[in-house]
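the two lines:
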Amino acid sequence: MLTKRIIPCLDVDKGRVVKGKKFQGIKDVADPVELGKFYSDQCADELVFYDITASHEDRDIFIHIVEDVAKNINIPFTIGGGIRSVEDFRKVLLAGADKVSVNSAAVVNPPLIKQAALRFGSQCVVLSIDAKKNNKGSWDVYVKGGRENTGIDAIEWAKEGQRLGAGEICINSIDTDGVKQGFDIKLNEALSSLLTIPVIASGGAGNMQHFSDVLKCGADAALAASVFHYKEIAISDLKEFLHKENLPVRRCL
Amino acid sequence: MIAIIDYGVGNLMNVYNSLKRLDMDAVITGDKKVIDNSSAIILPGVGAFKDAMDHLVDHDLVETVKNNASKGKYLLGICLGMQLLFERSYEDGNWEGLGLLKGEVVRFGQGLKVPHMGWNELHINKPHPLINEIKDGEYVYFVHSYHLDPKYFDDVLLYTDYGVKVPAVVCKDNVMGMQFHPEKSSTTGIKLLQNFKELIK
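prediction for all of em together
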């Protein structure tokens, strides 16, 4: 049976992972490759490396990290952050990334999704959407790191992304992000039932039950950062928990 | 020396890296002479079937691959590379493949999320040295929107369930294929590549 995926997200700035406490059995938690390996050994299903580097010069460091990760880790990984053009896609894919996540740039320039999908295949195009509930009972798409409301309906945008050729939708709920009170179940439920491509839920993970709740409502994968980085949840424990909740997961055996 | 065929489709470094980690001597090449002199061939591939076939034709490599296979050289197709080994694909049309194995590539049925993306369980159909030490229920990473409908299910060594029995590892004599990405499938993927290494010794 196709399993539900658990995906840790690592924010990388100037070649170092930004969050992260002390981990047993790993030398350098700020090293993206070391931390990625640690998660991979714990049975993480995929990894996301998010480039939060502001300056242009430091982008080259990031490309080297992508190459390093590809050389040393043999589970799939996605690269996000600062992707603006087909050329940006090409660079990180050539460096060894399996998928590329695009967010604001696709809102500004929707054909980018189609161009990238035609050139590299839908399987590597992840449309990442920052969504926030409005007072009409639906969700708006935000850009610029959640600072700017575009007024676009998030569900419509996800459907359009699918039509343009995205292979996956990653939905980040601004309302639940960082609050640790659980994923946005309603939004994920709505998207999972309306889309025919996989949905990755993001934002709100606080405990293991939260993962179970969102995966049971239809999401295909769940992404989180701090609960993993601060060792509040070990991925191997989470997999056992989800298995007991009767969710299909790849367990560490 | 294993020849990883470079025909302008996608990134081949990940396959190359995983072979290197197993101390396998490999080269990424589109050179016919190098391919002819190789000990085994890997045909990778991502993207669309027609594009990939077009690229093989443009690089004038169709006959090279076929000739090497007919001489009995081990040939492993990975992901789209596996699909290319078969007779035909219905991905956005009706396209001829290499025809080294019998079967067609078809779209997944209705009601399933497509692409079939993520870790799915392997089931054993037929024992073979290529799948040594692989246990029923081990997971590998799939990502594909079309799947093989083989003419002879006997050519299938491992399969997975996604609406139908989806061939995961196929093998007929010296021609073999893996629908998933062994280079991205953690320890199980490494075991399979290790088996391939033993096989071509």
